[in-house]
Amino acid sequence: MATKKKKYIDFAGEPPKTLDAFPFYNFTLDEDQLQFANAIWNPEKLIIFCNSPSGTGKTQIAMGVANMLVRYGFYDGIIGVVSPCEEARQGYLPGDITQKSAVYFEPFYQAMIECNMNPDTDISDEAMVNDKNGTAFVKLITHTFTRGSSFRNKVIILDEFQNFAFKDAKKILTRCADDSKIIVIGHDGQCDLEDESQSGFVPYMEHFRGDPRCAICELHTNYRGWVSSHADKLELK
């Protein structure tokens, strides 16, 4: 994912059929990244999984295509969901629930900025200032308080899904209606759960595999560089 001169997308025109020759913000996508972006863009795919290492651009691509889908009018908002992993520790952090959760949302903030979005105006905040001003279309939440909710006509990004325990993965996926687009991203090699076998990421990816409404993608190039890539290869025996 090479960075290019800042490029803004004209959302007033006709939406493209595919993203093959379409400018993607500040980046030139490699072949794997373009396949992932097109899978998200494809109206026939309801759920897209991406199991890829750190630094491959999965969060940026997910957020960038989600932004395009909303700006072109296919969906009416983006919901980004993360797992706090250790909810007890989250409870002891200072501030309201938005402030407690903010540390988990940093990858979303960075991805939004890289895709020419403005977190200060685009995100629905606790005081709902941006909602009242009519600028908010992104909601960032942890899975903690989602039971009983329904996600309709949204692009839903489930980030670091390897950190969702199976019961939490089921809880969040069963909130999603079929008029939404679900993007499930993570890496099965970097799980922060105390018992990695409890992760719902791979079991749900395999559960959906083979259904024509599902796409499963992989990204292989770590664009952070050699240190990040080399560190990711070491496994404890």
Question: Which CATH class is shown?
Answer: Alpha Beta
Structure class = alpha/beta
Write down the overall mean pLDDT.
89
Distance between the termini: 32 Å
The Rg value, from CA coordinates, equals 17 Å
Largest sheet: 6 strands, parallel
CATH architecture, by name, is: 3-Layer(aba) Sandwich
For this structure, the CATH topology is Rossmann fold
Keywords: ATP-binding, Nucleotide-binding
InterPro entries: P-loop_NTPase (IPR027417), PhoH (IPR003714), PhoH2-like (IPR051451)
Protein name: PhoH family protein
GO molecular function, one term: ATP binding
Question: Nutshell version of this structure?
Answer:
It holds the Pfam family PhoH. The protein has 237 residues and is α/β, with parallel strands linked by helices.
Describe the protein.
Keywords: ATP-binding, Nucleotide-binding. By secondary structure, the chain is an alpha/beta fold. It has one domain (46-222): Rossmann fold. Helices cover 32% and strands 14% of the residues. It contains 10 helices and 8 strands. It has helices at 31-41, 58-71, 87-92, 97-101, 106-114, 119-122, 129-133, 166-173, 201-208, 226-232; strands at 2-3, 27-28, 47-51, 78-82, 138-142, 155-158, 181-186, 214-217. Strands 5-4-6-7-3-8 form a 6-stranded parallel sheet, with helices on both faces. Strands 1-2 form a two-stranded antiparallel sheet. Helix 8 (166-173) links the parallel strand 6 (155-158) and strand 7 (181-186). Helix 1 (31-41) packs parallel to helix 2 and helix 2 (58-71) crosses helix 5 (106-114). The longest helix is centred in the first third of the chain and has 14 residues, at 58-71. The protein is globular and about 55 Å long. It starts with a strand and ends in a 5-residue tail after the last helix.
